[in-house]
Amino acid sequence: MFFRYSDTLNGGRWAAVSRSNNVETAVDTGVTVAINTTYKLEVEVNAAGTSALFVLNGTLVATITSNIPTAVGRETGAGLQCRRTVGTGAATPFAVDYVLVEQTLTAPR
Question: What CA–CA distance (Å, rounded) separates 97 from 5?
Answer without folding.
Answer: 18
